[in-house]
Every structure is written in C-alpha cells, then in structure tokens.
Amino acid sequence: MDIETTPLLTDLYELTMLSAYRDQGMNETAVFEFFVRDAGERRPCFVTAGVDTAVDWLEQAQFSDEECAWLRACGHFDDDFVEAMAEWRFTGTVRAMPEGTIAFPEEPILQVIAPLPEAQLVESRLMNILHGQTLLASKAIRAKLAAGPRMLVDFGLRRAHGGEAGLWAARSCYLAGFDATATCLAGARYGIPVSGTMAHSFILAHNDESQAFLNFARSHPDNVVLLIDTYDVETGAQRVTEVAPQLASEGIAIKGVRIDSGDLAAHAREVRRILDAANLSQTRILVSGGLDEDRIADLVADGAPIDGFGVGSRVDSSADVPYLDCAYKLHEYGGQPVHKRSEKKNDLPGRKQIVRQYDSDGVMSGDTIGFDGEPIEGESLLVTKMQGGERTTDADSIEVARQRCTDQSQRLPASFRHLDTSPTYSVYHSPQLKKLTS
User: Where are the beta strands (DSSP E) in 338-391?
Assistant: First the structure.
C-alpha cells in the first residue's frame, strides 16, 4: 500500500458515509473548505504549506487490489461498494492559497468542489497533509524571524514523528526561510540544500581530538565544520587553532565550528576570542542543541557572536503548539450554503473567496472573507489548482513558494514580526456573508 497514492489512509467514517451517500443517491456538488479556527497568541497567523502535496495526492489517489481486498474483508461494506471503490478517482476542482501565503484564522486555505462522496472521502488525508505542513511552516517562520540574516539549518529528522513528518518538516522549514536541511531525502526529493558535518561519535572514535579534526578535514576539504564540544568547548577551539596552519598548508580552510551544549552565548564569546587571536576571524560559529525561536531570540538579543543555528526537535515537533485547531467542513451542498452552528464551533457558510487589502506602503491592512464572485476590491487569494481531477498549472517550485513566504512576511504589519507581541489583524466578513450569518 503506497502512502502517497492510497485513499485508505483515512478514518473509517469517511468510507461509511461514502457508502451511505451512495445508497441514497446523494451525489450533488459539495463545497468543503479547510481552515484554521484559532491557535492562540503564539500563532496569530499561519504559513500555508502542503497545498501541492495535497494536490499531488488527489491526482494520484486510487484503491489498489490489495486495498479493495481489505475493504471486502473488513466486514463493513458490500461487494457493490467495493467494486465501485476499485474505480474511484477524484474528479473535482480544488482552489487554494498558493504555498507560502500568509493566512489568518477562519480563512479557507483550501477549497474542494466535487460530488459529495468524493469531497467527503478525501477529508482525513487532506487535513493530515495540510495541517502537518502548515503547522511546521508556521513554527519555522518564527525561528526565521528570530534569527534574521543568520544561517538556519533543519536538524530535526531524528526526533520528528516519523519519516514522512521529517520530510515535511524539512520542506516546511525551507519554505519558511531556513537555509538548508540535514535530511538527505529532502534534498533529493525537493531540491533543498543539504548541510551537515559530524557527530560526537566521530570524535569519540579517535584517540585524539586533534587527529579527528585532521582526518575529517582531509576527507571533506570543502566542508570543514568541526564539532568542538565533545570534551571541553574552549579546549576544542584551541585545538582547532593548532591544526589550522597544517590544514592551510594543504589548501584546506576551516569554515566553521559547532557548539552543541552548555552556555551557548558564553562559549561563543570565548570561542570567538580564541579563533580571532589565531587569525581565524573568517571561521564561523554555529550552535545547536534544544533551540527554538525563543532561545534564538535570546541569543541574538544577548549579542552572542553566533553566525548560524542548527534547529531540530523543538521546531520539527512544533513543541509549544503541537497542533492547530483546524477543520474541513461542508459549506455548500446542491447549491445551498450550509454550516455548522454548534457552540464555539460556528463556522462560515457558502463557497467563499478571501480578498486581501494593502496600505499605501504595501503592508497588509486587512482581509475580507466573502462569497465567491462577490465584488470586493483587493487581491483574491484562492486560485484554481485542479479542475476535473487534474492539475490546471504546474506545482510551484519550492524556491517560488519560499520567495512568496519571504515577500509576504515582509508585508506583514510590524507587530507580527515580533515574537513577544499578540497582534490582531482585521479579517472582515463581506456584506453578503454578514447577512447570511446574522
């Protein structure tokens, strides 16, 4: 069973509803929308990610013979239903915010327009894809805002929640502005620059720390970044200065050193002093070890002489906000607006569009959620990605999505670029939407 094509990666109730819809002949056009309700003060806005992954899945999704055999054997479905599933394909339309778009609570990020059974079946997997990548990109952009121009590398695969999550984290981090990832498959699959040098085990496998440095540098002369905290950070830095002349005579420059433990600010200052005294002012200092946007912001505010950060567990698991309160809801069926009205989960009906306005300086000034086709001035954010079950345009390259994210983050109001504020952004409801929900 191929995780990238199977519709069986879903909740049972999607299939039981699909069977019931089929029995009742309920096949009119439905409009479902994926949106984030709210995630509290630490996520006042979101970075849209996973849209192209979702469209790829919709375009390829089909039940294999093995999966149909499971449907037949599980005891919930008759043979006619299983035979219908063997022919199942998504034939609908998808509109979405392009990847890297900044979004706000309640705004539909992705909209599915398809016969009701098709639009229903894809709910769980679409939510899984969009939630996972949007969550991680929205965390990663905070690290980028904290780091500013300093280098950021994704180190998080080993503590990500599974292999697919590790790939999504690498992709989402790069989209949000990271410079590279340590995950090789992300480099191969998405074209993300890869970065990495050594672990403590490499040092420990040698009897002498200096010899470990020499051996590594000679094996990778164009990528010499030495890990100096296996024993003692300052002693490690001193040993770097001792091997540097020998390596220089062989045409090898030490590009950087990495510190992975202890008081990173204090160590960085002392290491900078040691390196500069040995005429290694061009050797960069990189740090890692339990970092997130708050710790990075503290190090930057402290003036620590750090040139880059390796960020892993806390970003790749979105440790402070491990999930977004998101939903995929039916908002139109058979041409009639519908919506959930339950307590504290009263969502917005109808097939919608989001229109963004900017002030005279090009800064975002507000969004309006209205019905599709309602005349509203501004930039329409939902664009058609699929029609008739096929892509209407090629997927954006990761570089295009990354640049979009960078451009949009620079057009956010200034308060959104500070980690310690809880800004609000104006999201209006159009006159027609207000009339229907009042």
Answer: 341-342, 345-346, 352-358, 364-371, 379-380, 383-387, 390-391
